[in-house]
Each structure stands twice: as C-alpha cells, then as structure tokens.
Design brief:
This protein is α/β, with parallel strands linked by helices. The protein has one domain (about 5-155): HUPs (Rossmann fold, 3-Layer(aba) Sandwich), CATH 3.40.50. It is about 45% helix and about 20% strand. The protein is built from 5 helices and 6 strands, in the order E-H-E-H-E-H-E-H-H-E-E. The protein has helices at about 20-30, 55-80, 95-105, 120-125, 130-135; strands at about 5-10, 35-40, 85-90, 110-115, 140-145, 155. A 6-stranded mixed β-sheet has the order 3-2-1-4-5-6, with helices on both faces. Helix 1 (about 20-30) links the parallel strand 1 (about 5-10) and strand 2 (about 35-40). Helix 3 (about 95-105) runs parallel beside helix 5. The radius of gyration is 16 Å and the shape is globular.
C-alpha cells in the first residue's frame, strides 16, 4: 500500500460523513499521515438576497462560519484524541472546487470523501460533488458510500 503523508477528508457534517472520517482516520493512523478535515459551505451572495439588510447578512455569514469552525473543531479534537495529527480546513465556495483547492494547496496525497448514491434524474439535476472531484483531482480519490447509498467503495489512482 502506498504511504500517504497528507490526507484531505471532506465532510458535510451529516451522518453520511462519519464513515468517511472513520476510513480517513484509519488510513492516517496506518500511514502516520496528517489528516486535513475540510468543510466547504456556500451562502447566497448579498446581491441574491436583495431585501436583506447588509448588517443582517454579515451577521448571518459570521454565524455560518462560526458554526462551521466549531463543528470542525469537534471533529479535529476527536481525531486527535485517537492519536491522529489532524487540522481543520473551513472553505467558502462550491464544495467540489474547494475540496480540490484544499488538496492542491495542502499538497495532499489522497482525498477521502463520501457519496450519497444518487442516481438518474436526481444526480443529473443536483450533480455530484464526488464525481466532480474524482474527475478533476490530481491525486487519488477514495469514495466511501453512505450507509444508505447503493454505491460501492471505489478508488481512483
């Protein structure tokens, strides 16, 4: 097995992300790798919310960011309590783009992320963050299906 030094694990804070973090932690422990837990969020631009006063929008944006920081801090603390060198990465933007940017900027050797197992029209209309990351990543991507997904675990090298 290839030894990884930096692993990006993507989370959306849903229960479907727990298997992703478990797998990323397992690999990080086996390789002695640093685990970078990334969460990307996107809020509507102020222009999209024309009727919302600027101060309210800024408060909302600050609250979203603070909540993300707190939730990431909890996940990082859990990983560290298991002896893993972990660090949070909170990004604002589209999830696929920010996961790829984080992996590139941090020189990650592996991205671990979940799949929700959408098929057909649902996938076509909503797209797939995992598909975009797998298709565009310069490093290997391991996908971990959610418990409700009909997808199977796969990796692209």
């Amino acid at each position: 097995m290839k030894t990884f030094e930096r692993i990006v694990a993507a989370t959306d804070f849903t229960p479907a992300s727990r298997p992703v973090l478990d797998e990323a932690e397992r690999i990080a422990r086996e390789c002695g790798a640093q685990l970078l837990i990334v969460h990307a969020y996107r809020v509507p631009a102020a222009a999209e919310l024309a009727q919302v006063p600027v101060g309210v929008y800024e408060d909302f944006l600050g609250a979203v960011r603070a909540a993300g920081e707190q939730r990431l801090a909890t996940l990082v603390a859990q990983a560290r309590s298991r002896g893993i060198d972990a660090r949070p990465l909170l990004r604002e933007g589209f999830a696929d783009e920010e996961i790829l940017n984080a992996a590139r900027q941090e020189r990650a050797d592996l991205i671990v992320m979940g799949t929700h197992g959408r098929r057909g029209v649902s996938r076509m209309l909503m797209g797939s963050v995992a598909w975009q990351v797998v298709a565009r990543s310069a490093c290997p991507v391991m996908t971990v299906p959610s418990e409700h997904s009909s997808a199977t675990r796969s990796a692209r090298a």
